[in-house]
Write a structure and sequence with these properties.
heterodimer, A: alpha/beta, Rossmann fold, 15 strands, B: alpha+beta, 4-stranded antiparallel sheet, 15 helices, 16 strands, 25% strand
């Protein structure tokens, strides 16, 4: 190196310590630094840039427990070239990590309030650390509601964990699926429909939503109908990202750089953009 | 009278044109490679030069919408032309940069950061609008939370010798953007060319210690007189009045934010070819893409960073499709970023008024005209909430229901 500044574009090698197949097309990786001991600190909602040797680099939200600094956990869905290559990696294989980046969920502001978590599909991954944090500080929060929608019962992520959230940690969880066979005794339909009857006090609640953009639009509408003000609604946004640090320009959403001003935004700050086509 | 004439300006010196090579030698003595405008392929471009004869002496240019050509005008001026297709970003924010090489090994792979030996470079002939553009890119790459190391290395090694404008092209509007025709800061040295009868000199302004140190390598220059200074300001005032274009920047942010939905975008899309020329010639456009390549055996991989353009479909691609599949909205994104969003991001405009995007647009789209059209028909409409229509079929089919 011939300059005194560390290059923020240079990934740090990590080894895969565990691979867990979650559903047909989702999987969780547990990463350990290839050198030294892990001391990975992140805030729920942040992401890492993961580099697969020779294939590419993509942003992936961190799905682990923010209280555990000894490993990095990522849960992702196989959708493109990089995630396909990532799925083929074995325990002990290396990948590159840059991060954590991005603006996290508003956990400090949520204290003393009811919390409404709305997740769609893989959108649950960046919200799991929120639940982990709440569980570790359960008395600091009021009613906690977790509404989760996915395609089918086979696509439910972290199902055993979700049962524990309900049974042991007083988190009202409600799962709904788009379609199911006769043996499914849960909800069928879109997750946004669950908002109307979810038990929370809209005048002292904060909402956090992550999922496909169309799900978010309807979720926001439903939350507004319940009376949650726009400045108590937080959404996570997805855009193309190449650098993660606000220098490549790809993730712009109006004047926001999703990588550094987001991915978590307070809804009232971007409400206007949400209504603009192809912004 | 004599007293008054002799009153000297410490910061302003006089460099006679015939001494210009002495000045260039002083730069060489100080170990600077000199990059300056020079004529190549019928255009004024930026390249390394050795002597004053390499400058576009006697050349001038004619620029209009989608049109550029250079010709000799029979004079002996050194800098009687305006900005060409190259911007200085080609030396600071490289069009292609190797981020790292990775090689496979027994434990996986190892990354190697390229060792870069960037020479000290004197940028000679940086126009005021271009000085402003460099300052804008400094803000992005050096003054945020993360420093772009490759940019910093080059920027630290660059000596900026600005040249004020005594003439303007048909596409210049730096006066509107308040970046020219005179450079006020951001340079190490600044020249103003003065040709008056047989006298041909440069008024040389020292911007800082670094600029001053370069001059230590040459015989002392005379200090400029009040008359010279008056002449210099007179030239710039004249240039200011002759701007080829102008933009009224009053409430320009609101103008764009209130008109996300406007017929002007659709109309521009009928002309705009989405070629991305404007983004490549723009001295402030900074977007980059990443390319990963491997050799045939797969034993070695490289990551390259390359200039990108928001006019491509891939630019905003996420699984499922591009965020901005329509040409009109890609144009809207570019111009809105430049004139409105940049203010939110960096507290200033992203446009310096150099006019390159107008000159090098193959169909001659003129940003100043498009802004004028928006201003003439500015009718802020409350954007319909798409979700309220329940017309989701149209949303998913990709047809905008907002038109």
């Amino acid at each position: 190196m011939n300059n005194q500044y560390a290059n923020p574009m240079l990934p740090l090698n990590h080894n895969i310590a565990r691979i867990k197949s979650e559903t047909k097309d989702t999987f969780t990786l547990e990463l350990q630094p290839s050198r030294g001991v892990s001391d990975f600190k992140f805030a729920p909602g942040q992401f890492n840039m993961l580099y697969i040797y020779g294939v590419g680099e993509i942003p992936v939200s961190i799905s682990g427990d923010p209280c555990c600094n000894d490993k990095i956990i990522h849960t992702t869905r196989v959708v493109g070239a990089v995630t396909k290559a990532m799925r083929k990696l074995q325990i002990g294989d290396q990948l590159g990590v840059r991060g954590p980046f991005g603006n996290p969920w508003p956990l400090a502001q949520a204290k003393g309030k009811d919390v409404v978590i709305v997740a769609g599909g893989i959108g649950l991954a960046p919200l799991r650390p929120v639940v982990n944090y709440i569980i570790a500080n359960r008395n600091a929060f009021g009613h906690v509601v977790m509404l989760y929608g996915t395609r089918s019962p086979q696509d439910v992520l972290f199902s055993r964990e979700i049962q524990n959230w309900r049974k042991k940690h007083q988190i009202e969880t409600c799962i709904t699926v788009d379609r199911a066979a006769g043996d499914w005794d849960g909800n069928v339909g879109v997750v946004t429909k669950l908002v109307a009857r979810a038990p929370f006090n809209p005048y002292n609640a904060i909402a956090m939503a992550c999922g496909p953009e169309v799900m978010m639009r309807f979720t926001i509408q439903e939350l507004q109908k319940r009376g949650i003000p726009d400045d108590q609604i937080y959404v996570s946004t997805e855009r193309n990202m190449k650098c993660g640090i606000g220098l490549c320009g790809h993730c712009q959403f109006g004047a926001e750089f999703v990588c550094k001003d987001g991915p978590v935004f307070r809804y009232d700050r971007i409400a206007k953009l949400y209504d603009v086509w192809e912004v | 009278m004599m007293e008054n004439k002799k009153k000297k300006h410490k910061k302003h010196l006089v460099l006679p044109a015939q001494e210009f090579d002495v000045f260039l030698n002083a730069l060489h003595e100080a170990a600077y490679e000199i990059i300056a405008p020079t004529v190549q392929d019928q255009a004024v471009v930026l390249d390394q030069i050795d002597k004053s004869a390499d400058l576009p002496i006697g050349w001038t240019d004619a620029q209009r919408e989608g049109s550029y050509h250079i010709f000799k005008n029979g004079e002996r001026s050194f800098f009687n032309f305006n900005v060409g297709p190259h911007a200085w970003k080609k030396y600071l924010h490289l069009a292609e940069l190797l981020l790292f090489t990775a090689k496979t090994n027994s434990s996986g792979f190892k990354t190697f950061e390229p060792i870069e030996n960037v020479p000290k470079r004197a940028f000679l002939g940086v126009r005021p609008c271009e000085v402003a553009a460099i300052q804008k890119q400094d803000k992005i790459f050096l003054q945020g939370n993360y420093v772009d190391t490759a940019y910093k290395l080059r920027r630290d090694n660059a000596l900026i010798i600005a040249v004020n404008c005594g003439r303007v092209s048909g596409n210049c509007f730096c006066a509107s953007m308040e970046t020219g025709p005179q450079a006020r800061s951001g340079f190490d040295l600044c020249l103003t060319e003065i040709r008056q009868d047989e006298r041909h000199v440069f008024i040389l302004e020292i911007g800082n210690e670094r600029g001053k140190n370069v001059l230590a390598g040459m015989p002392a220059l005379e200090e400029a007189t009040e008359q010279d200074i008056a002449l210099m300001f007179g030239l710039q005032e004249e240039a200011r009045k002759k701007m080829g274009k102008d933009v009224d920047t009053t409430d320009i942010q609101a103008l764009f934010y209130d008109n996300y939905e406007h017929s002007v975008w659709n109309e521009i899309a009928t002309r705009c070819m989405n070629c991305g020329n404007c983004t490549l010639v723009c001295p402030t456009c900074f977007c980059t893409n990443i390319d990963d390549v491997t050799d045939l055996t797969g034993a070695e991989a490289e990551r390259w960073r390359r200039w990108d353009s928001c006019f491509t479909m891939d630019f905003s691609y996420i699984h499922g499709g591009s965020i901005r599949p329509s040409a009109e909205n890609r144009y809207r994104h570019w111009i809105t970023h430049k004139f409105a969003a940049w203010h939110d991001q960096f507290d200033e405009s992203g446009c310096v008024g150099c006019g390159r995007c107008i000159t090098w647009c193959p169909v001659g789209i003129d940003v100043t005209q498009e802004i004028r059209k928006l201003q003439k028909t500015n009718s802020p409409v409350e954007i319909q909430r798409v979700v309220n229509h329940g017309n989701t079929a149209k949303i998913f089919s990709g047809t905008s229901i907002l038109k």
